[in-house]
Amino acid sequence: MSEQAPLTPNETELRGLLDGRWAHVRERARDVVRGERFAPVYGLSVEEHRARTLDQLMALTETDMPGYGFPESVGGSDDVGASVVAFEMLVADMSLMVKMGVQFGLFGGAIKALGTDDHHRRYLPDVMSVALPGCFAMTETGHGSDVQRLRTTATYDPATEEFVVHTPDEAARKDYIGNAARDGRAAVVFAQLRTPGPDGLIEHGVHALMVPIRDEDGAALPGITIEDCGPKAGLNGVDNGRLWFDQVRVPRTDLLNRYGDVSPDGTYSSPIESPNRRFFTMLGTLIRGRISVAGGAGSATKAALTIALRYADTRRQFTRPAADGRPAEEVRILDYLAHQRKLLPALARTYALHFAQEELVTGLHELSRSEESDDRAQRELESRAAGLKAVATWHATATIQTCREACGGSGYLSENRIPQLKADSDIFTTFEGDNTVLLQQLTKGLLTDFKDSFGDLDQLGLAKFMAGKVFETVIERTAARPLIERLIAAAPGRGDESSLYNRGWHLELFEDREKHVIEGLAARLRRSKKDGSDAFEVFNQAQDHVLEAGRAHMDRVALEAFVAGIDRCGDKATAKLLNRLCDLFVLSVIEENRGWFLEHERISTSRAKAVTAAVNELCRGLRPYAVPLVEGFGLRDEWLGAPIALGAEHRRQGDRD
Amino acid sequence: MSEQAPLTPNETELRGLLDGRWAHVRERARDVVRGERFAPVYGLSVEEHRARTLDQLMALTETDMPGYGFPESVGGSDDVGASVVAFEMLVADMSLMVKMGVQFGLFGGAIKALGTDDHHRRYLPDVMSVALPGCFAMTETGHGSDVQRLRTTATYDPATEEFVVHTPDEAARKDYIGNAARDGRAAVVFAQLRTPGPDGLIEHGVHALMVPIRDEDGAALPGITIEDCGPKAGLNGVDNGRLWFDQVRVPRTDLLNRYGDVSPDGTYSSPIESPNRRFFTMLGTLIRGRISVAGGAGSATKAALTIALRYADTRRQFTRPAADGRPAEEVRILDYLAHQRKLLPALARTYALHFAQEELVTGLHELSRSEESDDRAQRELESRAAGLKAVATWHATATIQTCREACGGSGYLSENRIPQLKADSDIFTTFEGDNTVLLQQLTKGLLTDFKDSFGDLDQLGLAKFMAGKVFETVIERTAARPLIERLIAAAPGRGDESSLYNRGWHLELFEDREKHVIEGLAARLRRSKKDGSDAFEVFNQAQDHVLEAGRAHMDRVALEAFVAGIDRCGDKATAKLLNRLCDLFVLSVIEENRGWFLEHERISTSRAKAVTAAVNELCRGLRPYAVPLVEGFGLRDEWLGAPIALGAEHRRQGDRD
């Protein structure tokens, strides 16, 4: 991209490209989620908001949304991709988004993934109709991220053919459980499964069971203690609570027994022998929630950018003096470079992540339909989901914050929606996996193709592994690999001689950075191990390097997805505009990380300065297209619900004339 | 700092150093702001919160706090520094902090600064007692940042010796005005002053008048329309509103006439001839609000860091395997490098900004007491206030966000205070001057020692000026200049040969960066002007460079203040600890900006990598002192009001054993 001739992007084409494979699901959501019942509101009390959210959830049961993710055998449409896309469309109130995710995705999803036909038949229809509102009771107070060490117990009693579910101490109370404080009637409870053996209890690790928690009237059942988590920064339409179990008995058949079962006499059996592998297989079936959160973060980001960019395109501040025959006029704030720099690189990254999300959802969807299990594909999907969830939610937090500031005092008023988007999405960086933990998990996945060999993801295991094996970098390939390789092959090689806008150079540079960071990390871990250093310390001291590797990987993944997305675009002018936007994504990533590129002599100092100049140039060139580009997201005006995004500022200025 | 031997910092010494010159004011606040009446609360409705905040403000009138900033002639103690410090101590509820700032700082402060003895006598006692709750009605919907162009008019009518205050259009309505929606009885209204002349009205620019807005019963007075801004992201204890004036008449004597007066016959007079200079002089008297916000942002940051670091010091997650005879144990999250990197560089910067704030308050205080006016000192103070407000509030927003994430789900619960700190302080980056505008203002101040020559701060004027004059860099000097120069003189010179921990090298590097960025900017502006480029475009295209210059300046200012602060420390071990913290501040700034340092060949690539390693090393070395360092801030436990910061996690873990 060197010239900046005006373009006429095609709106329909752009919308179609962004809507992607599940365009029909998006269109359906645009059709269904409207009117007073779904409109964004603010200023509700916690109880009012909870009641409204439940009412909205009930309204969704009149649509086909609840069935997307469930088997046809129980009345669903068995379209996992659709279930994730539907989740992200509920941006009009993110409490509804999350409440829906808890009911159908986490609670229903766990029954589907960890249960067997009997559970599906008995429970899923009531899950879909919300006749059985339920909880996903995994997280404990003492162990948020470290699921493997949770402490709730489920002990089998052969005498009555029941499991006894119990909370042994405060660390083991279930915490932050959605649907628990008000609406949930049952919970999928994760607990350490124990069966009687000749020498006492035998531990089988974490398993999940269906446990009723409230009666028809909403009262806690005997042995169940429920506490409200109380008000939160956001998402107050979701009733998070705490659960304690005091020797609560459930029938043997309510163990979700796909990956581990107990016979009437107490004999444990599992299709997966290694307890460690079993644990990670079970967790792996639950990644839909994580992928959904990445998508929801994307929607919140898009909504905030739509509001901020529409406002910046109309809001005027300070006067540009008359010059060159042009009269003095108040300047639209989006005409300021500083304002462009706040919002446009964020918009470019939002596009990149959108395409990466589409690829991820497709991957999940395909894997869910494949008959035979593919361990490597599953593992790659898990790594990708971990990484994308982390970068997409951090991007949401940073971008929505920037949008708040870009809208000044207007962005602080509840009526303009941004405060709610900020507060609601804020938890995304730490729920469904803490981002820092997830990014490490991604890097560990990248470090080796033989994850099973060290399996338990702990720091010691990894360092040991690194010491013993020849390292092999695994650059996972995105969908558009042949295209990517063609572009790289056409690049004029390293160094300063290629154009700053050469896509092949971009791709090669990002790939090179990822490879170098990962190889450097592997070498560092191996070296320290040889020194005989303490494995925990070795890994801990490299933690910044570990996180850097994850970020470098995700930058490459996002770029490749962006390139592949543009390749699918049928309209030339639209593709050209998207290529400019992709240039901005790439060059702003290089600018942000130019310390690294300079340190490692990947770019010269003059090239680094040229990158900054090019980012400025691209911002200026893209400024006229900022609003059309956010319109491409197709968020309904009523979902935005912000006067400053809906013509209030323009009308006010009109009044003045 | 190369060795990392254990230190025993002295708590009393540290507290005394941080409490600084107004230690007695801080102690008094610790004494007064306690108990149920001042305790942090959450979950209140907007109206409940407003009532509580007013009640707290009334409680403060029983102390000497309201009088700090007012003349002795009206019962105050004429201690401006104390008034700023008292403001920042009200962190138990930032709504109270801001409400107090509106009443005593903005409303009362404007009467004091812009009014004369008669106004002081008539109004200030009632301001201090809150018998007259008032508003500072400057901001208009159409012109938030561009105060000079506000549109409310105050037209003199000699027939009745009154001013007619009027809102000509929607752009001119007063917006976001604190105290307006519920409690205010009067407002200091900023308006374009006009007097009748032989050929129609003569414009005199922006002036301020006292305008009553509500009667004794709280009803809006005739001609006054008041609207509630409604719920906001935070600060809901402050009743922000909108004001319209329909030909409202006020007596001639209610013009705050220190800088411009109108005689009974309508003749305008002013001690300052240039309207432009008059405008900026009037605005300049109001910088106390901006300085207070910088301090308040500091307090919010300290509170969030105190909560997050105390929690991180007790919270455990994931297990460190047994090694070297040490048993396996769950790791405290502050022992992870990634967690240290989230919080400790932010803590170091918080210290640096604390000392910079103390210097700024001292500067304001001294200037307020000096008999003769010192234009240069005043201008430097304004630049410094603009810059510190910008960097301190951005730092608050970023750090409190990080603290939220560092506390995981606990950080999202309202009971743990961080959500409120985040939401309340969020507006700080854009009120009392939008940060981006302020940082530009700072740079413009730095660009020349002759601000009056281009005066009006617009972009054209500046570019014109740059083209015509020889550029002279003005590195403003901080308090400890002789010390700084001694340290720089002792530095072994540029390049890699000096220790990474050599303070002289740090100081020189920061100064060199600032100088280079500013000189480069000046050259760029001058060059473009010679080309005959459009002045607005020239400046706009350099806007990222302009902001970079402001940031570079403030990094140097913060470092010098930190160095000067340590120099005042009487205890050797405490000073040593603070020197380590200062190293972390410096090296994390270098790391963050290493792109620039490398691009401009200020450091080598190997030195850049060594800086990253040193930041890691410093984090590890400072980890044991993190909690003592936040205790130094002296925030009362009851102000934090967060169970996770008050032993809940520790007790829970104890229960388990």
From TrEMBL, chains A, B:
Q: List residues of the Acyl-CoA oxidase/dehydrogenase middle domain.
A: 135-248
Required co-factor(s) are:
FAD
> Main localisation, per the record?
other
Where does it localize?
Peroxisome
Give residue ranges for domain Acyl-CoA oxidase C-alpha1. Answer: 284-447
The Acyl-CoA dehydrogenase/oxidase N-terminal domain covers 25-129
Could you tell me the keywords of this UniProt record?
FAD, Fatty acid metabolism, Flavoprotein, Lipid metabolism, Oxidoreductase, Peroxisome
One Pfam assignment:
ACOX
Q: Which GO terms describe its biological process?
A: fatty acid beta-oxidation using acyl-CoA oxidase; lipid homeostasis
List, alphabetically, the InterPro entries matched.
ACOX_C_alpha1, Acyl-CoA_Oxase/DH_mid-dom, Acyl-CoA_Oxase/DH_mid-dom_sf, Acyl-CoA_oxidase, Acyl-CoA_oxidase_C, AcylCo_DH-like_C, AcylCoA_DH/ox_N, AcylCoA_DH/ox_N_sf
Q: What Gene Ontology molecular function terms does this protein carry?
A: acyl-CoA oxidase activity; FAD binding; fatty acid binding
Lineage top rank: taxon: Bacteria
Q: Which family does it belong to?
A: Belongs to the acyl-CoA oxidase family.
Q: What is this protein called?
A: acyl-CoA oxidase
Native organism is: Nocardiopsis alba
